[in-house]
Amino acid sequence: xxxxxxxxxxxxxxxxxxxxxxxxxxxxxxxxxxxxxxxxxxxxxxxxxxxxxxxxxxxxxxxxxxxxxxxxxxxxxxxxxxxxxxxxxxxxxxxxxxxxxxxxxxxxxxxxxxxxxxxxxxxxxxxxxxxxxxxxxxxxxxxxxxxxxxxxxxxxxxxxxxxxxxxxxxxxxxxxxxxxxxxxxxxxxxxxxxxxxxxxxxxxxxxx
Amino acid sequence: xxxxxxxxxxxxxxxxxxxxxxxxxxxxxxxxxxxxxxxxxxxxxxxxxxxxxxxxxxxxxxxxxxxxxxxxxxxxxxxxxxxxxxxxxxxxxxxxxxxxxxxxxxxxxxxxxxxxxxxxxxxxxxxxxxxxxxxxxxxxxxxxxxxxxxxxxxxxxxxxxxxxxxxxxxxxxxxxxxxxxxxxxxxxxxxxxxxxxxxxxxxxxxxxxxxxxxxxxxxxxxxxxxxxxxxxxxxxxxxxxxxxxxxxxxx
Lengths: 208, 251
Description:
The complex is a heterodimer. Chain A is built from four helices and twelve strands.
């Protein structure tokens, strides 16, 4: 029932995740934030086993921070993705971490990038990716409508339509407003239940 | 000087000194010298070979310079067998980093990691420190060309020009006088050869007494570590005028 999807656009990378936290017939929470902010220029969206998701993304976040504290420079997106994949691979032969991830980041030299990391430590650098039942819709929509270097507005439209058929956790996205500023990341959420995170070279806010 | 506090590495003397670490540095002061100079387009390492004998089998391997990773090399001064252990450790650390992050290890991080290893031998375990000083030369995308010096205590710092081994203080003060920020690689080589010729004990410099290595970028953007061949080195020595003991070396 969970869904995470992401795509790379013109100067930004975007991740959207549903916000349901469900246990069989019980909805624990409908505003669960499944996108971990790794640092000022990286996001890790995850879906899967609830405890694993929360613990593993936080573990990665802390290690990304530790690297920065120790070395004075941030990890590149590629390095962070490979590190994450390495941790999953190490756990695989002991006790797999049942959680799938999309890591989105922005590096000055490389631009925006998106990494698909599944629970058995597959790593792919992609322009668009998705996990969960919602991926059946989002991947098809992206196959049809995704173009290289989409603008943020186009990307949000695509994300809206990709999530519109899903059962849980999405609600219609209201208007967005955007403005350029120094490289920062801002996340926003709708009045409903849809945390919508985006990371890029602009500042964007979703106004409900 | 209190001899009673000598024998164990892991205790301070009453004056607050670690004698074993200092004795290790003494050992290095008797070893063949090495000089490193940071140029605008690369890093130059020059080393003095102490052991020269006709009977020595000249092979591809070097005595003073070692490649740690594609983008990183070092010059050593001190006990060679100790150096081998540390160089291997450094190589493993560099590969471990690349295995985890799929990127070359930043130069300072490698130096720091190796120095952490060296520090361990000054604090616990009861084993003596390594009798080696290093000059690390490398390139990474964060800070470009870099030169670091580290000693048996596990301290390190970044340098524009540095000398280790015999007569390193004299070499260091000469470097201080003659170093300029805008040196290119060729000028850096000349400076290094000039300084080494003045601090080495031997009367004349020949290519079999020296090793010269450079780290620079190829036009493709790849980092290249190149050890100078004896023939090219002889030509360089001639050109810079240092192998004539009476002639004034060119500036």
